[in-house]
Amino acid sequence: MMNKDKMGRWEFVLLAVILAEFVIFGLANPKFLMPRILLGSVNDIISICIISLFVTLVMITGGIDIQVGSIVGLTSITLGVLWQSFGINIWISSLLAVVLAALCGALSGFIVAYIKVQAMIVTLGGGFLYSGLALAISNISGSASYKGISGFPASFLSFSKFRLFGFIPSQLIVFIILTILLYIVLEKTKYGRKIFLVGVNENTARFCGINTRLVIMSTYILAAISAAIAGIILTSYIGTSKSDIGSTFTLPIITSVVLGGTLSTGGKGSVIGTALASVVIGLMRFGLPLCFKVNNQYLDIPLGLLLLIIIVARSLFKGQFNFRKLKFFSTKAN
């Protein structure tokens, strides 16, 4: 498990970065600091924030999940088709879409955990599979895939329009609740400790009596369910069900998890760190176009650079630490 002092220090660094973003973007364009505009931007990034929390679990076990973006689109188009073409109640359609997403996560998790295929390969293939499945389902509706399905009931659309105290979006409330719940699960329960132990050393965890394969599989199921929740929220917000609405989510999600302090090799991670990192990235994606006129098409460039910098910096730090440790023991031996 990640040293709590180090993790806490990193979370303070992320808080400092968030503060710096407010200062820089606020000075560049005072509109950035307007609560109505700032909180309104939550709708565009909250899906990435929610999914990042649960992908953290996957990466703590030493895996990776790059299929969740496809599952967002699959969930969206599934609930739309079930509602429009089959006349199923919108909320029941949403529940069935979540079940489908969980099955997708279970399939990929089973292949990773029980058949021992590399997670990167499995979820890459899963991404293509679920994107194709979403496109096939969209053809059932008779609507062009680029148009999607619209005209949802007011009760469904009103969820994303709700504002606590008149200005706090319901999506932000969901994100905060999920962050607290997942923090408790990861830090205060046996299941959370099992996730960390599997990430540190799967063989040792197995010898301790932990069903490591089931633990690993469960993290992919939870990540898929979070993608389904994000897909439902996003569909409610834009008022349209489309098969490709999560296609650009992969890079921001992985960057959020890694920036939050989770090691790509597993065994270390923090839900709070991921939550803060997703806010950092969300503010960046909102502030750059608003304050510096950066085209939305180029927002992946700073995210990609940020991800590379984090990975390289960690590798250099780890190499330097190992060198110093080797030098210390060599001196002791002599």
From TrEMBL:
Record keywords, A-Z: Cell inner membrane, Cell membrane, Membrane, Transmembrane, Transmembrane helix, Transport
Major location (coarse): membrane
Membrane topology (UniProt): Multi-pass membrane protein
Source organism, top-level taxon: Bacteria
Subcellular location(s) per record: Cell membrane
A Pfam cross-reference name: BPD_transp_2
Membrane-spanning residues: 12-33, 45-64, 71-92, 98-115, 127-146, 166-186, 214-239, 245-264, 271-292, 298-317
InterPro entries attached to this UniProt entry: ABC_transp_permease
Name this protein carries in UniProt: Autoinducer 2 import system permease protein LsrD
Organism name: Amygdalobacter indicium
